[in-house]
């Protein structure tokens, strides 16, 4: 898998699913482009307008807490976010992000060292994150999870493994 390289958008603790993808759109917005346009709008109104594909969201503890809505993971994926790095994740968000094919990395020491706006690199296979402050290791991801990220999500991964077209 290639390196993930992007500019950092840094946020604090307890970034919940309602600010990642506002609940008011849950049943009305299903188009990927429109979902991307609302990513993080209640936390950072400039995010969707100014982020570039591959940019990386970095946050504190309990990222993705709140409701179990999967749109919160897909909105960031559709916006082009390369990965989310956090001190910790809400369990359901972590799983939804993997299903969406959005790399999620738990690296508490790196989060403390990373500065907003800097460009960082993440090597998922090596379990390394490189930033201005140095190189930080995180637990290597299982091959199946790397396969899901490489395929673009759980559904394409499963179809590929089963030999199903489409």
Give a quick rundown of the structure.
This protein is 34% helix and 19% strand. With 166 residues, it is α/β, with parallel strands linked by helices.
Give the SSE map.
Blueprint: E1 4-10, H1 17-20, H2 32-37, H3 47-50, E2 56-59, H4 71-79, E3 83-86, H5 91-100, E4 104-106, H6 108-113, E5 119-123, E6 128-131, E7 134-137, H7 143-151, H8 154-162
Parallel strand pairs: 1-2, 2-3, 3-4
Antiparallel strand pairs: 1-5, 5-6, 6-7
Structure commentary:
By secondary structure, the chain is an alpha/beta fold. It has eight helices and seven strands. The model has no long low-confidence stretch (mean pLDDT 95).
Number of domains: 1
Beginning-to-end CA distance, first to last residue: 22 Å
Oligomer: single chain
Shape: globular
Order of helices and strands: EHHHEHEHEHEEEHH
How does the helix and strand content classify structurally? alpha/beta
Q: What does the radius of gyration come to?
A: 15 Å
Which blocks of ≥5 consecutive residues have pLDDT under 50?
Answer: none
Portion in helices: 25-40%
Q: How large is the count of helical segments?
A: 8
């Amino acid at each position: 898998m290639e390196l993930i390289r992007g500019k950092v958008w840094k946020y604090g603790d307890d970034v919940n699913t309602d600010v990642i993808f506002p609940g008011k759109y849950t049943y009305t917005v299903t188009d990927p482009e429109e979902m991307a346009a609302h990513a993080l709008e209640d936390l950072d109104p400039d995010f969707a307008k100014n982020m570039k594909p591959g940019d990386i969201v970095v946050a504190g503890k309990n990222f993705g807490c709140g409701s179990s809505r999967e749109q919160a993971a897909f909105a960031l994926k559709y916006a082009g976010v390369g990965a989310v790095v956090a001190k910790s994740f809400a369990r359901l968000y972590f799983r939804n992000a993997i299903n969406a094919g959005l790399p999620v990395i738990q690296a508490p020491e790196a989060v403390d060292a990373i500065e907003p706006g800097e460009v960082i690199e993440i090597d998922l296979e090596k379990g390394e994150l490189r930033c201005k402050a140095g190189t930080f290791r995180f637990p290597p991801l299982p091959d199946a999870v790397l396969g899901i990220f490489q395929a673009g999500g759980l559904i394409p991964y499963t179809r590929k493994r089963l030999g199903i077209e489409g």
